[in-house]
Amino acid sequence: MSLGAILGVAKQNNTEVISTGAAQKDAARPDSIQRILVVDDSRAQRSLMSRSLAKQGYQVTEAGSGLEAIKLFAAQEFDLILSDWMMPGMDGLELCKAIRSQTANGYVYFILLTSKSDKDAVSRGLNVGADDFLAKPFNPDELRARISAGGRILSMERELQETNRLVSSALAELKTLYDSLDRDLVEARKMQQSLVRESFRDWGRAEVSLLLKPCGHVGGDLVGFFDAGKDHIAFYSIDVSGHGIASALLTARLASYLSEGSPTHNIALIERNDGDHRRQPPEIVAAQLNTLLTKDMLSEHYFTMLFGYLDMTTGRVEFTQCGHPNAVVLNRSGRAHFIGEGGMPIGLISDAEFERQTLNLQLGERLIFYSDGFTECENVQKDQIEEQGFGEILEKNSGLTNEMLFDAMVWDLDRFAGGQEFGDDLSCVMLTYKSQT
Fold it and tell me: Which of the residue ranges 11-25, 199-213, 229-243, 306-320 would you say has the lowest mean pLDDT?
């Protein structure tokens, strides 16, 4: 009969226990070894060893051969097997190898009883999976010591198994939470993208294009524009510190303060008596946002911003720079000129002051507000592209229309980064001043 067949029959028939020993102590022993299977073809040797182990409080089962031991092992659980090496039929080495091939009952400590002492014999025993050796005839004290050593090893092995089980369970819970969070972040990114209601608008004498590309699920960048009254356009670029949900929530709050859909709640516009709205100076808009962030919202975040107005009749731009990267003017000949004085970020100091800057756009020129994700982009050597490299990208692609220019900017930036993920969000608002068509 094959080994597999023997195991199958044993599991179905629950082969009887040969002997359980005598005078057993409480079955709930404090150590890791309670149930021992003694295997020896000599009835006298089995009986002698079983009595010695039973007196120590172990639950002892006897088997007169390797095949009989296999049947018992398939039907019961044992902590330790004490087997003679030299037995007719299946010897101790073959039994050990067969036991090691079975994993359903967990790890079992295996001690070989042998009169062999040469190194080759020990090596063969270890190779098939034996844990320890005991010379015959056995010494009860030595047997007790070796079983105690096996108990310590089994205890560590079972503690490790329990730790692995707990870790696996924790990882499974974390994966469930991560999957749920990942789905929420995907939805959050969709909602953040929806904050940019229009990516392009043509006013006739001017047009505005927007780019918003978070580096992760959600980010802290925000760009936008709105009608700021007769012949005026307001436009802005904002970069909230940090990344993730907290930054995205703040950008959503800021978008509501600069919304064209609700001019009565737009912090940049003040309703007049005739129902129309007038513009607040850009530096005042910055100051009011600073007050909201430091006194009302009490946020731990801050943000940088470029906010300005274009007078479409004259090309005059008034803007305030609040720690944001310098604006850049791309003239009709394709040359990039950076403009800015730095300024204080919003939300760091409650009484911070902000200044107004001005410039005059010529027909055909483009004004670009952008986030530091462009100028601080790194290559594989960790060198940043900086203003000079970004300016070169703009000049190289200056002949393209706004939407195509955005694509070229991201493409060339990706090539500079060597194909690695961008380290920060990319956002940009591009205003083109043109003659009325």
Answer: 11-25
Return the pLDDT at 4.
Answer: 46
Per-residue pLDDT of 156-198, as tens digits, reads: 888 888 888 889 888 888 888 777 766 766 666 666 666 667 8
Contacts by 398-401, CB closer than 8 A, 24 or more apart? 398/330, 398/334, 398/335, 398/336, 399/334
81: β partners: 37, 110
Burial (CB < 10 A; 0-12, 13-18, 19+), residue 229, is middle
Q: Quick check: pTM over 0.90?
A: no
